[in-house]
Fold this protein.
Amino acid sequence: MKQFKNLAILLISSTSLFLTLSCEKETVTPTPDPTEQIIFEGNVIGNGSQEFEIKESHTIKRGKYLLKGWIYITDGATLTIEPGTIIKGDKDTKAALIVETGGKLIAQGSENEPIIFTSNQPVGSRKPGDWGGLVICGKAKNNKGEMIIEGGPRSKHGGNNDEDNSGVISYVRIEFAGYPFKTDQEINGLTMGSVGSGTKIDHVQVSYSNDDAFEWFGGTVNSKYLIALNNWDDSFDTDAGFTGKIQFGLVVTNPKIADISRTNGFESDNNSDAPNQQPITTPVFSNITIIGPVGQDPAYLNTTAYIDGGVYNPNNGSKLGQHQAAIQIRRGSNLSLFNSVATGFPVGIAICNDKGSQTQQAATAGNLKFQNNYFAGMTILGTDKDGSYKDALSTDASAINEAIESFSSSFFKQASNSNINNSSIASLLLKLPANPSVNGNWLPMNGSPLLNKSNLFTDPKVSVSFFDKVNFIGAFRSDAAADNWTLKWTNFDPQNAIY
């Protein structure tokens, strides 16, 4: 492994530093306090190597820094980043920050001073995949055993400590991440491998990632207040036995940005090689607002049309594709979604028996819950086959019977699930922003059917103490500024932000 080179440690103290000189006039310096600021050649963190290791605990003081290469926070080390710090990922070295098992990242920003990870490219030239991203590896359970994290880093994750603590990520923005290390090996905006419930993750915005915004590979970590803005692939991707809980999330898609693998709001698998492998992927989401591509751009009505990516096409080998479903659950996943709203996708919900799984049977048995959700403006309500864009029954995610509506549609419409499907997005009375690139409103106005609800948290999956027992559907209580938790710390136009 390459060790720290040219490491200058700045010690700030109210006392004087004393140098003790030996009789041979050799200088002996005090042992540096590892909790003080680390600076690598001024404001550059790393040396461009893909094996740059942080082995001790350090604090990065508030300021602006350039992240170069892959930086590993190793077992036993803690890297603390002060509020208001801006870290720009270097494009040439595919910069990434990776927390390995036993390491910790303390990135506790604030509403007025968020911590920002972003592109080092100039205004107007930023693209998805300008740098790597943020990767957290923990020791909680997954259903594949100890494994290498997706995207190219060396790091393994997985264990038996579901309460494992990898640190804090709070009031943090991650922008233009996801450089493809190899074909189909992009780091996500925020990649979480077997992250334990002792880790704090809240108030995180991932924008213009070249892959998924958030992806969980196993683990038990819980989160609130997550935003996925205009990402290339899926917004919330859950795999490999993830069992955490998420409340209050905003997903916004761009009609001109989608992946060849078909972009979904949610994509959830259990284990593609063994769909019944334990622990089963059983996350529980509540109060999510999902804004699809159809209602944002009237020209985007041909749901199978390929798109050009516009100014955000990274031109780095990522293949352009199309949008698909607001919610896709497949390959044995038992993901549950409550009290949420989704608008304007080619497909509303896709519950697919891919890879020989019994995902539909899990839904029938009540292991997979889908309750108190509102859809509006979907081209079709449901599909059972990935990529078919047909509301037709398929019990094996392959052959379809177009004479019978999909299992996904019929499951959504079951009276006991209390879901609503509206043809009109306008019927939801959302305060749509005049320019979605500038602000993130999508707030329910007075009289919206999403407000003043009751009995939303009676199911055992959401009656637990983690979930705030609110009386509204979606991520926001009202259109009042006091109820807009995205204010101050977010940015819905990072392309033009001056950092």
In short: The chain has two domains: 1-12+33-231, 280-499. The chain is about 5% helix and 30% strand. The mean pLDDT is 87. The longest strand covers residues 167-175.
